[in-house]
Amino acid sequence: MEQEKQKAALNLSLVMGDNALILGHRLSEWCGHGPILEQDIALSNIALDLIGQARLWLSHAGKLQGGKSEDDLAYHRDVFDFHNFQMVETPNGHWGTTLLRQFVYDAWHHAMLQKLVLAQDEDIAGIARKSLKEVNYHLRWSSEWVIRLGDGTEESGAKMQEAYADVWPYVGELLQKDTWLTELEQLIPGFQADEIISLWWKTVREVFSQANLSSEPMDWLYRKGHLGHHTEHLGYILAEMQFLPRAYPDATW
Amino acid sequence: MSNQNWPLFEVFIRSKNGLSHKHVGSLHAADAPMAIENARDVYCRRNEGVSIWVVPSTQIVASDPEDAEALYEPAKDKIYRHPTFYTVPDEVGHM
Amino acid sequence: METTTLEHRFNQKIEREEKIEPKDWMPDDYRKNNIRQISQHAHSEIVGMLPEANWITRAPSLRRKVALLAKVQDEAGHGLYLYSAAETLGAGRDEMIDDLHSGKAKYSSIFNYPTTTWADIGAIGWLVDGAAITNQVALCRTSYGPYARAMVKICKEESFHQRQGYEIMCAMAFGTPEQKAMAQDALNRWWWPSLMMFGPTDSDSVHSQKSMDWKIKRYSNDELRQEFVDKTVAQAEYLGLTIPDPDLKYNEETGHYTFGEIDWKEFYQVISGNGPCNKERIEARRKAHEDGAWVREAANAFAQKRANQQVA
């Protein structure tokens, strides 16, 4: 029983931590290149929140793995050991693509954290409480942008359709009832994966209808980012992110 | 190209409850709700505030520096409005 | 009121160390000079994001990553404060940005140098921010109110930037031999461009005298450069790194360091557009602005729609 709980906590920390790390990495690529200063700053704030959360989750995962550090996990694992969803590793595209990907992730992240704050494990509940405050704002901000762009000009509406075509095929992974998710009932009494999924749909339908986007489910491919099966993009992200610690294994920075 | 420039807003921040909002600068936003969020992201990165006001810069009505004499000089010689104008015997103590 | 009287009053205010505020009368040249200097300063913050942002995705630890990202983001904030200050003088941000992109407006030459190794991030924080802070502390007392206020805010926020850089330098200078070599290489490349940041020598500076009279600038380029050298030498010694100037030595009499001749030819080349990265920097800024056009436009259109709905 204890062992199962520990396994659930570890898997959860890796999925949450890797999602936050890789999405934070993608958002940080925008720094200095945003459409206007005010929004450059706003997006960097979200990137900082996510990387901060990644540090908490990965430190926790490291602790569960017998005393590894956040940097051991971030910098010394290869692609197949990363548990993030494939969606967060996809390239940024234009501002609309980044924001649409952000919104669908925020909607999931928000639904997820609302459950995780109820965890009996105080470490997990604590990380979730801190994250939830931040993600409340992320979701509000990205929802508004998706609506604004979806219902802005003809050009922006068309750009959001493009973004939709890029992002939508990846959202299936947020809605799969995978083992790492269902085993959360070990940590949260009465946990139901379906509740997260239906909460996600509710948020997405509300925002998409205002943004003139379709929220029809599609016949999604079963994606296994959470199991370490990734797109080709993640390898390049890691090559970049991990370059220094890999090139100078004896150095501390 | 049609209009891409966002209007200017003035930003006022209350640093903690009990203090008034204070002008901290300005920023651009497409509308007032966005201006509030931009103010949060731009001017509250270090815990500077608990409350934000934004006002479209065009809505600020300011006095004219040319009128300074008429507006402010007359108050200068009304020294009887200040406590130091009055003498209270030392024995009475602080009043 | 007659211009001569107005000008006399203005000069008196400057004399008495009173700040000039946006709606106050001011000579046209004072306005222009301020717009030029403030917008140049804003452009430097914004272009200055690029060489450092270059390493955010490659920062060697998560702690370094968040520190660097926060720092580069601060620079966006500082650019924004400065554009705001210039806007109080009637310059639109869009016009200022157009001037940057067309090459009409200048920015600090230092940001046209490449960041090729991680040690450059340390060197920029230590030297470039160190030089900038020397300049900026002096500017907190500049005569134009909104500029002075922006500088006070910026100086307060920048205090962590230089420490962040020096900490990186420490980790490397006291690290493995490879790291130390990397740190020395960064110092070699950034030292002279950092000294150039203070601008031409006083005798060659076009704008300086007028700016000094109006107390827009409070200290001359050479005075500030000297101050920077004086405080930086000991910091390099602590790191065990060598400043790449054989002529650098302490003068007991003056209590200052004397240093070698700056390569002004390089300075003017970089300023006039022939630096190592001028093209890339402006291109990146222009691309961000142009790629963002549809976003800014859509936000305006949406705001308009919402406003119309509320009226209806």
> What sort of overall outline of chain A do the alpha carbons produce when their principal axes are compared?
globular
Strand order of the largest sheet of chain B: 2-1-3
Q: Which regions of chain B contain 5 or more consecutive residues with pLDDT less than 50? A: none
CATH architecture of chain A: Up-down Bundle
From the alpha carbons, calculate the radius of gyration of chain A and give it in angstroms. 18 Å
Query: How would you describe the oligomerization state of the chains in this entry?
Result: heterotrimer
Count of extended strands of chain A? 0
Rg of chain B, alpha carbons? 21 Å
The assigned structural class of chain A equals: mainly alpha
Major sheet of chain A, described briefly? none
The first-to-last residue Cα distance of chain B is: 68 Å
The sequence of SSEs of chain B as H and E is EEHEH
Q: What is the total tally of β strands of chain B? A: 3
Structure classification of chain B: alpha+beta
Write up this protein:
- The complex is a heterotrimer of chains A (253), B (95) and C (312).
- With 253 residues, chain A is mainly α.
- Helices cover 66% and strands 0% of the residues of chain A.
- The mean pLDDT of chain A is 97.
- In chain B, a hairpin with a 7-residue loop joins strand 1 and strand 2.
- Chain B is an alpha+beta fold and 95 residues long.
- The N and C termini of chain B lie far apart (68 Å).
- Chain C has 12 helices and 2 strands.
- Chain C has helices at 3-15, 28-53, 62-87, 93-102, 119-139, 145-173, 177-196, 208-213, 221-239, 264-274, 278-291, 293-311; strands at 249-251, 256-258.
- Chains in contact: A-B, A-C, B-C.
